[in-house]
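Morning F.,

Quick status update on the modeling queue. The single chain you submitted on Monday has been processed. Sequence for confirmation:
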Amino acid sequence: MTRSPSIRLALPLALSFSLMIAACGRQEPVGDLPSSEDLAEAANAAAAEAAQNVSRDETEAEDNRNYVNNARGFSITLPEGWVRDAAASNENGVVSEDPGAGADIRIFWSQNAGDKDLQQVVEGMTQGSEAVDGDFIGTNEYRGTANDGEGNSVAVRLIRKPDGSLITATFVFPEMLSEQYLAIGQRTLDSLRVFTASPPAGEAPADNATEG
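Structure tokens below.
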């Protein structure tokens, strides 16, 4: 029996279609495709990993904000998004800055040579500053503000510890940006806490330390 022209034409067309499928990489049988359950499981695993990464990043950011100096006996919560200046920081304290904004905070321990009282310390620290305004809170704490004469405002919190040593926190920012930084500075200085120091083994206590 003679095949009709339409049948002869259909055979090469079917062959060409098969070749096109092969060229597109779609040769696998339907049974080898991942099931909807497999796809859902993979999506859930990816979402869980992403959430874990976000949580880890948030934890690292929080750890970077919470500065604790056990050797000198103080801690503070630094502003969110600020960067620590490793070169300016040392075993006695830390410097953190708002990148590109000209604002920074410095918190350091010092021995208080001569065992000065807080009044004497404040007088020495504010000498040469402008628009000095502040208050003593009891006999061992001072909070105040001033201008450094170079266009910057300075907020300070000073604490004299029971052993006579000092914790000084200064928040410096451009005077023209006072509205932006005043609340940040107050909140940061409020977070300063002092506690009994735990010096590393073998380190001598401060010269002015008192037994108690």
